[in-house]
Amino acid sequence: MSHSTFVFDVDIPPFLANRVFDADHARQYPGAEALAALGASLRDAGLETVTADLYLSEPNVGRPAVCLSNELTRFTDDLLAFDSVVPVACMSLESPIVAIDFYRKIQEVSERYRHVFLWGGMRDRARGDATFHEIAWPYPDLQPAHRSSAWAQRGFLVLVNSNKRIFVPPRRLVQLHHPGRSARTLVAAGRLSRLRRSEPWLASELYKDRLDAIRHFSHSADFDLFGRGWSDRTNLSGPEARAVARSYRGELPVFEKVSTLSGYRFALCFENTAFPGYVTEKIFDCFRAGCIPVYRGAPDITSLIPAGAFIDARDFSDLSGLESFIRDLRPEVARDYVTAATDFMSSKRAEQFTQGHFVREVSSVLLQAAG
After folding, report:
1. Is 155 exposed, middle or buried (0-12, 13-18, 19+ CB in 10 A)?
2. From the centroid of its chain, how far is CA 151?
3. Burial class (CB in 10 A: 0-12, 13-18, 19+), 46
């Protein structure tokens, strides 16, 4: 091959120094296992794999390489300054409301690379010369997991999410301004609020919907909340903090998520944002566990996943109506949802959400450029 090296341009601390290519290490981070599998596939094809930080620090920096960028990083400009480095592709598995600056520059990005792998909702914004590939979440295993308990023996409802707020409403800035909060935090929050007003696609954050659901269901003893960050409730209002305190059951390692979900009949499955094509591991974790997801997220979800496999939160005008529906759901109807999910996971339609599909799609463009 004319290019014998693959450089992964990534700037996520746990992934540096080639750690992203360690499958056991990557398994701790949602989506990263697919990146380790991509590296293994490229090594099998004869490419050396290296993260950008190591490539730029080696004595033979600048040797011919093909490059895949995970968004734009502090390494990107230095990498692409070498004529010997081919900017093959740029991708993102992050929410558009988290990687805000990257997505605001998406037209510029699509002019620097040959290919872009992005959520479907970005197709019309990426107007450069790059070939657009609609990315799907690369789930490692769509086989149903062991069901730990019979339906009647399961808990009622669970929510597994981190306490990670992207936007802080302007009215909350005064509440948040206390000695533990830096001026930089307040400036950043103000900037995000201004961006939200200027960019309509940023106005789809679902964090408030999660909080509303926690407040509603926290009055029931059969609702449990898991996830990182809920012990620190300084970003919550008084009623929100009290609701979390009633329901919070602790953090949950990634490898325990499916087994935990398998102990519940229903799970509130809310994405970070309602953005076209943005469907993450959350709904597939529920499917594997035989737990019915109550989904709120991608507006085009039913074009990607059959409607009979999940409960669409948009079908209810309020949380009281939703609660009544799921509490009254007959076991035989619940079985229909679980069966629909299981059938979907084994279908051709689900293949786009597999780790294997992701590896084939991305490696093909990298190997073509390398050859």
Report:
1. middle
2. 28
3. exposed
Kindly give, in sequence order, each residue whose CB lies less than 8 Å from that of residue 193, ignoring residues fewer than 6 positions away: 167, 168, 169, 170
Fold classification of 5-138+354-370 is Rossmann fold (3.40.50)
CB 316 within 8 A of CB 325: yes
Residue 310 has pLDDT above 70, yes or no: yes
Look at the block and give the residue holding tokens 């004529």: 83
Interatomic CA distance for residues 67 and 6, integer angstroms: 6
Q: What is 151-166+205-350's CATH topology? A: Rossmann fold (3.40.50)
CATH 3.40.50.11660 domain position(s) in the chain: 151-166+205-350
> CA 204, CA 234: separation in Å to the nearest integer?
23
Which residues 6+ apart lie within 8 Å of 192 measured at CB?
A: 100, 166, 167, 168
The chain-wide mean pLDDT, for the chain, equals: 90
Torsion of CA 98, 101, 103, 108, to 10 degrees: -160
> What is the b/e burial string over 333-350, where b = at least 16 CB atoms within 10 angstroms of the residue's CB?
ebeebbebbbebbeeeeb
Query: pLDDT (tens digit, 9 = 90+) per residue, 212-223?
Result: 999 999 999 999
Confidence of residue 190 (pLDDT cuts 50, 70, 90): low
User: For the packed helices 281-289 and 331-345, what is the interaxial angle rounded to 10 degrees?
Assistant: 120
Q: Which of 218, 235, 242, 232 is nearest to 158 (CA)?
A: 218
